[in-house]
Design goal:
With 577 residues, this protein is mainly alpha-helical. It has 2 domains: 469 residues, no CATH class; 36 residues. The chain has 22 helices and 4 strands. The strands form 2 sheets. A two-stranded antiparallel ribbon has the order 1-2. A two-stranded antiparallel sheet has the order 3-4. A hairpin with a 2-residue loop joins strand 3 and strand 4. It is globular, with a radius of gyration of 25 Å.
Length: 577
């Protein structure tokens, strides 16, 4: 019988909360942020953004520009995820460095430090290029982390017999990636790609319409169109922009994501005859297309065959008993000098940041501690609330392709809607209710958590072999027994991935959920997000840097003490073999 999921607490292994690598990572982050603050001083004193048209005829062009930025950020995110997640999964020594760095990256509140990114890039690049680069960077940060965690988690859960078969066949790294690692991770990557695009749409308004004092960094696009329409009170333009966004989401669902989901069915561990599989009308059209067939026969397949043959030749030329890499070989003197110089630069930058923070009053540090506790409680509440409904709904969608065909477009639209536009109105309505702002902040932070959980639960349910599901029916297990012995253990790795990315989303959403400007009024509640946003508003660089580094340290500590151990438990006990 499958292991119980409710007795994992006694099995968690002990470990150090912080290591020297974590201290180096925090030092590196402090150095980068301090360098950004210094570069921001050299930014142009005034930047004028382009004039945006609220004409309906401008919407197709703006939608195309926004989609291009999203696509550029997604390509970067996917390449980063495959390289970074694969490196962390293949090497324990690399994992000890790369995963803490990933924890830090996904916890940095980019919304609060976008002014520093913009101003720093403006000091180095032309204004237009700096704004485009900053926009793509912001969208990248809303797409990359969940993809990376998903690929890392899938790579660590590849069944041992498949790994051994690849080792016996002496598959080179490129072939092993294309024929084993990527197919095994495909279902999770597709569902997390849907979530990544939804996250990109979610932050689109912030990515395309940002002002820093008298500097206007707006970019023409769908997000800035919605922001301008909301600011001008143009209901006609606002409705037209929202409908355009919905149409884009539905079109991508039908033309991209639904075909990919139907295509990825072939990568399940098993497919039982008669199983109700996902379908896609567009995939059928592509398979019947003569152009696609000819491209596959005369371009894609020959190219892949040539690459595979080259990789196989290189593997065959290597002696059987010779390792790919000599473990006793030392790094070249040049490489060692470069590493020493980089470490020296990081330490120097970190020390400068520490000196910069020495003048921060003790009262501010106490305020940071209280704010972290308040926001941490809201993050926990938002995670619990999201888990209560995403797990049952995600399992229902994953077990029923027919239900998925109906619900997935609705969920994609809901996840993609830029809910940041609703924050001021919701908080204003709750402003005069006892505890209203605290409750409103929890609800708004849930919008930054729930979709990560839902899409990972659906991906995990889709990956469960059908023979196991049919076995539970043949054994006539009760619903409680089925959840306890199969569904929850099988979903456990995906829930860990979803919770890590959801928690990161909640910490980031606190920046806009705990402090909101409504007209000339500022609505705020106690929390690290409100503290960071307030420090950014008044350009208090010391408080901004101290609050952000404290937030990163807390997230890093929690991930190391809790989530990392759950990852190890998922890898050792709750993997499909």
């Amino acid at each position: 019988m499958a292991p119980r999921i409710l007795d994992f607490g006694a099995r968690l292994r002990t470990g150090r909360a912080f290591s020297s690598g974590d201290a180096l990572i925090l030092c590196l982050l402090a150095a980068l942020l301090y360098a950004g603050l210094r570069l921001a001083i050299r930014a142009p004193a005034e930047v004028r953004g382009p004039q945006l048209s609220l004409s309906l005829w401008a919407l197709p062009w703006y939608a195309l520009l926004s989609t291009a930025r999203m696509a550029a950020a997604y390509v970067l995110s996917l390449a980063f995820s495959l390289a970074y997640g694969g490196a962390a999964a293949r090497s324990r020594s690399a994992e000890r460095l790369l995963l803490p760095v990933l924890d830090v990256l996904q916890s940095v509140p980019i919304l609060s430090f976008l002014p520093i990114v913009l101003l720093g890039l403006s000091a180095l690049l032309p204004e237009a290029i700096a704004a485009e680069a900053a926009s793509i960077v912001l969208i990248f940060t809303s797409q990359a982390w969940n993809l990376t965690y998903s690929y890392y988690q899938s790579s660590t859960l590849v069944p041992q017999e498949l790994r051994e078969a690849a080792a016996v066949a002496r598959l080179p790294a490129s072939l092993r990636f294309r024929t084993l690692e990527l197919p095994f991770a495909a279902i999770g990557l597709v569902w997390n790609s849907i979530m990544s695009w939804a996250g990109g749409w979610f932050f689109l308004m912030a990515a395309e319409s940002f002002t820093v004092g008298v500097r206007d960094y707006r970019l023409p696009g769908l997000g800035s169109y919605l922001q301008a329409a909301a600011g001008a009170g143009d209901q006609r333009a606002l409705v037209a922009g929202a409908l355009t966004l919905v149409l884009l989401v539905v079109a991508l669902d039908q033309l991209v994501w639904r075909p990919l989901l139907a295509f990825c069915v072939r990568f399940k561990l098993d497919v039982v005859a008669g199983e109700d599989l996902p379908t896609s009308w567009f995939l059928v059209v592509l398979r019947r297309s003569a152009v696609v067939r000819l491209c596959g026969q005369h371009l894609v397949r020959p190219l892949l065959a040539a690459l595979d043959a080259r990789a196989a030749r290189r593997a065959a030329e290597r002696p059987v008993d010779s390792p790919e890499r000599d473990p006793t070989a030392r790094a070249s003197p040049v490489l060692r000098v470069v590493v020493v110089l980089l470490l020296g630069g990081v330490v120097y930058g970190g020390l400068r940041a520490v000196v910069f923070l020495l003048d921060l009053p003790v009262g501010d540090w106490f305020e940071i501690g209280v704010a972290l506790l308040a926001t941490g409680g809201r993050v926990l509440c938002s995670l619990v609330l999201a888990l209560l409904w995403t797990v049952p709904l995600g399992v229902a969608i994953g077990l029923s392709p027919r239900l998925a065909r109906i619900v997935q477009p609705v969920v994609s639209v809901a996840a993609s809607f830029p809910a940041t536009a609703l924050f001021p109105a919701v908080l204003l309505a709750l402003a005069h209710v006892p505890g209203g702002l605290d409750l409103g902040a929890v609800g708004l932070m849930s919008l930054g958590t729930q979709w990560y959980l839902l899409f990972n639960v659906v991906a995990g349910t889709n990956a469960i072999p059908q023979d196991l599901l049919q076995t539970t029916r043949l054994l006539q297990l009760s619903r409680v027994q089925r959840w306890r012995t199969l569904l929850l253990p099988a979903l456990f790795p995906y829930l860990v991935t979803g919770c890590i990315t959801a928690a990161g989303g909640a910490w980031n959403a606190s920046i806009v959920a705990e402090r909101v400007h409504v007209g000339g009024e500022v609505l705020s509640t106690t929390g690290i997000g409100a503290l960071i946003a307030g420090a950014s508003d008044v350009s208090d660089d010391r408080l901004l840097l101290a609050a952000t580094l404290s937030l990163v340290a807390v997230v890093l500590l929690f991930n190391r003490l809790f989530w990392r151990r759950l990852y190890r438990l998922a890898e050792t006990r709750y993997r499909m073999e």
